[in-house]
């Protein structure tokens, strides 16, 4: 490690990374690389953990594909087992990982918490003091009953309410839990199913399911389809280590859609650091998947995707969507997927998260004006 980086590491050692301004955060990531950066904080966390009591994690699943759990199982910095051990987390309940099953006999729960997941869940609710992680959206339909998703003889809407009441913190993992995600996409049945996120329905915080249930609890949203494992584990870790004080710190740490700004910076989009950005700036756009150029014409929505994917990267910091040749679909935005549709088709007229894509694209094009070529000229020429 060079002396410059060593000095930077020393400086960062005393800093709470979730409270860093974006410039420092980006500088640190750029200088050290995401893996080294995270390792630095991993060591920091380990130190703090020695005197750390066990924290229970209750992880419940609504309507989803379990992709976010899968993503977290693939975590690398730290991996899930390291995180559980080092953060002293007791993963007390995770529907797809726990061995128990719900067992009913003549309409009554039988056996005990070691065998019956429903009893286990109820015991955890009673004990309280757990962090609640919600994966998946929550149907409100039909007619407000929530019965489009019933687990263990109970609408999931009710399960969420019971689980949220005694939680010390609520983290909505993935775009479905955060905003409704794929399940809330426009369709002929969307009004009937009425899928909601925990604290938002798309970008509307007045329609979140907790509000519907009359429960006033702050929620941290970690969107993504799926959510990046670092976003999940570092957020849960920061809550456990008291680096995020709930609710006091949330106003400053989260953006208007409940996302930690450090991972979803309001003034940074995936496009800013895309490995293909040079092609965009030179106006070299691919017309077919599989080429080396910019994917804008193939429907890349990265110019309005607020996330650090291009810096942090995925799969152990190896690659990310556009690097691997797939146009970004802005899966972290509250309006996803409708605001990204049609996928893989160039769109120039959609508004996302309170900002017009044209405005953002124009700024991006403006910044690259010298080299942006035909693309920029055409867009500006349209008076957008
Ligand atoms: S439009 Fe997409 S592929 Fe092109 S530079 Fe931006 S992020 Fe990369
Ligand atoms: S690059 Fe875009 S589509 Fe891929 S994970 Fe990040 S925000 Fe989602």
UniProtKB/TrEMBL annotation:
- All copies of the NADH:ubiquinone oxidoreductase-like 20kDa subunit domain together span 65-237
InterPro entries linked to this entry: Cytochrome-c3_hydrogenase_C, NADH_UbQ_OxRdtase-like_20kDa, NiFe-Hase_small_C_sf, NiFe_Hase_small_N_sf, NiFe_hydrogenase_ssu, TAT_signal, TAT_signal_bac_arc
Name the record gives this protein: Methanophenazine hydrogenase small subunit
UniProt-recorded Gene Ontology molecular function terms: 3 iron, 4 sulfur cluster binding; 4 iron, 4 sulfur cluster binding; electron transfer activity; ferredoxin hydrogenase activity; metal ion binding; Methanosarcina-phenazine hydrogenase activity
From which source organism is this entry?
A: Methanosarcina barkeri MS
Q: Where in the cell is it found?
A: Cell envelope
Positions bound to [4Fe-4S] cluster 1: 65, 68, 176, 225
Q: Name one GO biological process term.
A: anaerobic respiration
């Amino acid at each position: 490690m060079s002396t410059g980086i060593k000095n930077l590491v020393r400086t960062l050692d005393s800093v709470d990374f979730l409270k860093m301004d974006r410039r420092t955060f980006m500088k640190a990531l750029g200088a050290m690389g995401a893996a080294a950066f995270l390792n630095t904080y991993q060591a920091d966390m380990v130190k703090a953990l020695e005197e750390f009591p066990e924290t229970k994690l209750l992880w419940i699943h609504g309507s989803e594909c379990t992709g976010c759990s899968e993503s977290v199982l693939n975590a690398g910095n730290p991996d899930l087992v390291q995180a559980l051990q080092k953060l002293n987390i007791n993963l007390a309940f995770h529907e797809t990982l726990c061995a128990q099953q719900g067992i009913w006999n003549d309409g009554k729960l039988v056996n005990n918490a070691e065998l019956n997941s429903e009893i286990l869940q109820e015991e955890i609710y009673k004990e309280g003091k757990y962090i609640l992680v919600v994966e998946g959206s929550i149907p409100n339909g039909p007619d407000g009953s929530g019965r489009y998703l019933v687990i263990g003889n109970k609408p999931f809407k009710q399960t969420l309410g019971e689980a949220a009441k005694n939680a010390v913190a609520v983290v909505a993992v993935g775009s479905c839990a955060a905003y409704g995600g794929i399940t809330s996409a426009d369709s002929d049945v969307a009004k009937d199913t009425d899928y909601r996120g925990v604290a938002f329905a798309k970008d509307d915080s007045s329609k979140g399911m907790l509000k519907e249930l009359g429960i006033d609890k702050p929620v941290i949203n970690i969107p993504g389809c799926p959510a990046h494992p670092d976003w999940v584990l570092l957020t849960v870790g920061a809550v456990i280590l008291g680096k995020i004080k709930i609710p006091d710190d949330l106003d400053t740490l989260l953006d208007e859609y409940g996302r930690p700004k450090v991972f979803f910076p309001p003034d940074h989009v995936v496009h800013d650091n895309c490995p293909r950005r040079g092609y965009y700036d030179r106006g070299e756009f691919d017309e077919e998947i599989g080429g080396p150029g910019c994917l804008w014409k193939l429907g890349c929505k990265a110019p309005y995707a607020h996330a650090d994917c291009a810096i942090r990267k995925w799969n152990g910091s190896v690659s990310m969507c556009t690097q691997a040749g797939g146009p970004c679909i802005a899966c972290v935005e509250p309006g996803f997927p409708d605001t990204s549709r049609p996928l893989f088709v160039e769109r120039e007229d959609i508004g996302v998260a309170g900002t017009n894509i044209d405005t953002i694209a124009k700024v991006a094009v403006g910044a690259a004006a010298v080299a942006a070529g035909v693309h920029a000229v055409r867009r500006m020429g349209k008076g957008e």
